[in-house]
Design goal:
Blueprint lengths: L1 H12 L8 H16 L6 H10 L8 H22 L6 H11 L6 E4 L2 E4 L25 H18 L5 H18 L6 H15 L12 H14 L4 H25 L5 H4 L8 H12 L8 H8 L3 H13 L3 E4 L6 E4 L3
Antiparallel strand pairs: 1-2, 3-4
Helix pairs in contact: 1-10, 2-4, 4-5, 4-8, 6-7, 7-8, 7-10, 9-10, 13-14
Length: 339
C-alpha cells in the first residue's frame, strides 16, 4: 500500500513525532480509544489529567477510570518488553493481561475450578463470538492455541525482512486477529490484542496504529469478515487503510496548527501580543466547518490543552476584540470578529 508509505514519509518529514510530549499524548490517545471501544466514556483530556495529575473526571465511574489506568500501566510494561525484543510466551502474555485487568477483572467459579481475570489466568469456560450461536475456541484448547501463537509469532518476528514497513504492519495486524480469535481470557481480549499489535509496532519502530472509537463498527466488521471468510488478508487490508486515514488526519491538524492564515485585519496591531497557542485557536475557529460548535471543550480536545488554559486564552482574545461568544452559555460557540 504505497499510499500509506507516502503518508508516513510526509508525517516524519514534518517532524510531528518530534514535538514535545507528542508521543506521550499519542499514547494517551491510543489508550483512550482502546478503552472507549470497550465502553469507557473517559475523554483524552480527562485521561491526560488522570494520568499526569491524578485528577479524576466528574461523572465517570471508578471502573472506567481504573480501566484506563490499568491499560496505561500495561502499555508501559509493553514498551519495555518491546525495547528488549523479548520473546513472546504464554507467561508473558498472561502477565500483561493481569496488568490490563488488575482493577476491573472478576473471579469466575466454574465446574472446572475458579480462575481470576485480574490475575491474567486463562479462561475455564467457553465464550460466545456474538450473534448466530458462534463461539470462540473451546476453553480446553485455548492454552495450546496460545502456546502455538507465541511460537508462530516468534518465528515470524525473526524472519521479518528488515526495513519492510508494510510487512511489519501486516504481521502486527495478523497477530492481533489470531490472538483475539483464540480469546484466551474471559475478559480484556480486545485490549490485549490491540496492545500486542502496538507492542510489535513499538518493537519495529513503526508509528503505532490507533483504532478510533468512531471506527469501531468497521473494525469489528473486518474481524468478523476475516473469521467468516477464513481470509487473513482482509483485516490487515482494512487496518492499513484506517491507519493511513488517521495519520493523514494527524498531518492535516499539524499543518493547520502551523499556518497563520488568519486575516490580516484580525491580527493587525496585535500580532506581537499573541502567543503561538492563541494563534492556533484563531486559526481553528476560522477554519472549522460551519456545523461544528467551537467551544472550550472542542478547543481543549483539538489542541490537547486543559480547559482552564483554553478559557484563559479565549478571554484574552475576547479582550483584544478578536473573537466573541455567540449564543447561550451552554450551547454557544466562539466566532472570529471580522474587521
Amino acid at each position: 500500500m504505497n499510499e500509506l508509505l507516502k503518508t508516513i514519509e510526509r508525517y516524519r518529514a514534518l517532524g510531528i513525532e518530534e514535538q514535545i510530549d507528542y508521543k506521550k499524548f499519542y499514547l494517551y490517545s491510543i489508550i483512550t480509544h482502546s478503552t472507549a471501544i470497550e465502553g469507557s466514556t473517559v475523554t483524552e483530556i480527562e485521561n491526560q489529567l488522570l494520568f499526569d495529575e491524578g485528577i479524576t473526571a466528574p461523572g465517570r465511574t471508578l471502573q472506567e477510570q481504573m480501566m484506563n489506568l490499568d491499560l496505561k500501566a500495561a502499555y508501559g510494561e509493553a514498551q519495555k518488553l518491546a525495547a528488549k525484543h523479548t520473546p513472546y510466551s504464554v507467561d508473558m502474555l498472561c502477565r500483561l493481561s493481569a496488568i490490563v485487568m488488575k482493577n476491573t477483572g472478576s473471579t469466575y467459579n466454574t465446574p472446572l475450578g475458579s480462575f481470576s481475570a485480574a490475575q491474567g489466568e486463562l479462561r475455564k469456560l467457553n465464550v460466545t463470538a456474538g450473534f448466530g450461536g458462534r463461539s470462540y475456541l473451546a476453553h480446553e484448547k485455548a492454552p495450546q492455541a496460545l502456546s502455538d501463537f507465541c511460537r508462530w509469532l516468534n518465528v515470524e518476528r525473526s524472519a521479518l525482512p528488515k526495513n519492510n514497513i508494510l510487512a511489519a504492519y501486516r504481521l502486527s495486524f495478523v497477530a492481533h486477529f489470531r490472538l483475539v480469535s483464540i480469546h484466551p481470557w474471559a475478559d480484556g481480549n480486545g485490549r490485549m490484542s490491540r496492545l500486542v499489535m502496538n507492542m510489535l509496532q513499538f518493537e519495529f519502530g513503526l508509528i503505532p496504529t490507533k483504532v478510533l472509537k468512531e471506527q469501531k463498527a468497521e473494525y469489528i466488521q473486518a474481524l468478523n469478515d476475516t473469521r467468516d471468510q477464513q481470509d487473513e488478508s482482509i483485516f490487515p487490508s482494512v487496518m492499513l487503510r484506517l491507519h493511513n486515514t488517521n495519520l493523514q488526519a494527524e498531518i492535516d491538524a499539524f499543518v493547520a496548527s502551523q499556518e497563520t492564515n488568519v486575516p490580516q485585519g484580525v491580527l493587525q496591531g496585535v500580532a506581537d501580543d499573541l502567543t503561538d497557542r492563541q494563534r492556533v485557536i484563531l486559526e481553528t475557529i476560522k477554519n472549522v466547518a460551519v456545523n461544528v460548535a467551537v467551544n472550550t471543550k472542542y478547543l481543549s480536545e483539538r489542541l490537547g490543552v486543559n480547559r482552564k488554559t483554553i478559557q484563559r486564552d479565549a478571554v484574552a482574545l475576547q479582550e483584544k476584540h478578536l473573537i466573541q461568544w455567540v449564543g447561550s452559555d451552554k450551547t454557544g460557540h466562539w466566532v472570529i470578529i471580522e474587521k
